[in-house]
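sry for the spam today, last one i promise. struct tokens for design, 214 residues
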């Protein structure tokens, strides 16, 4: 088990510069538009209740709020949550952001139409238990949208003990699909590696979205 406090502190320290990465801050119009298009496909049109777990600075939350969805974001790092709150407030969009553990989001009995997680599962101590928790928060017909990958940057120092995380460095689509399949009815994987606009340039590692309905 890696201490959640250590992980929270790591991301708190990273919060101020997090949006400098093209695929984090989505500051370039084409990058933002690329994510907007994908989200429109993954999250049914209308006004869905979306839980964005490990929401970071709220870049995807903002796109979903702009599309008319009701977004709740949860993140372990207060600095990330503060930035997400500010980002949506400055854009004049509603959104609720909470400090908490994505493994058991502090949203009480609330039910959601969509649970979205981008680049979070790799850093959870018990990612399979988190998946089961999220499925339990979905309304019938709701969906998981998991944007994940296996990155070639595993040499970057992370928190002490990170090598014990089950999916440290990322999780491949086949392994994640095997973990989600018992929990879900329909499941599809969309390969994202070949779309450089999503990432601010070409990438040569595995990146994908897994969409599953319950
Ligand atoms: C790589 S960032 C991704 C942020 C955001 N999902 C995005 O795609 O821009 C990982 C985020 O997960 C958060 N995080 C890590 N472990 C967490 C946990 N157990 N519960 C909630 N958030 C967590 C970090 O604070 C960080 O904001």
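last one done:
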């Amino acid at each position: 088990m890696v201490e959640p406090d250590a992980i929270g502190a790591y991301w708190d320290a990273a919060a101020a510069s997090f949006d400098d990465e093209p695929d984090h801050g989505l500051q370039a119009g084409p990058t933002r538009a690329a994510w907007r298009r994908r989200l429109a496909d993954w999250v049914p049109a209308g006004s869905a209740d979306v839980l964005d777990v490990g929401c970071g600075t709220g870049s995807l939350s903002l796109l979903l709020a702009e599309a008319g969805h009701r977004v709740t974001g949860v993140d372990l790092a207060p600095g990330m949550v503060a930035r997400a709150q500010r980002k949506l407030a400055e854009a004049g969009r509603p959104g609720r952001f909470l400090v908490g553990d994505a493994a058991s989001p502090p949203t009480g009995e609330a039910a959601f139409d969509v649970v979205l997680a981008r680049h979070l599962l790799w850093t959870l101590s018990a990612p399979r238990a988190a998946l089961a928790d999220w499925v339990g928060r979905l309304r019938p017909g709701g969906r998981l949208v998991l944007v994940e990958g296996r990155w070639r940057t595993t040499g970057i120092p992370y928190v002490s003990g990170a090598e014990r995380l089950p999916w440290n460095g990322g999780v491949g689509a086949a392994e994640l699909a095997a973990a989600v399949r018992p929990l879900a009815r329909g499941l599809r994987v969309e390969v994202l590696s070949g779309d450089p606009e999503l990432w601010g340039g070409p990438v040569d590692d595995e990146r994908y979205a897994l969409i599953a309905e319950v």
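The first strand starts at residue 49 and ends at 53. ok im logging off now
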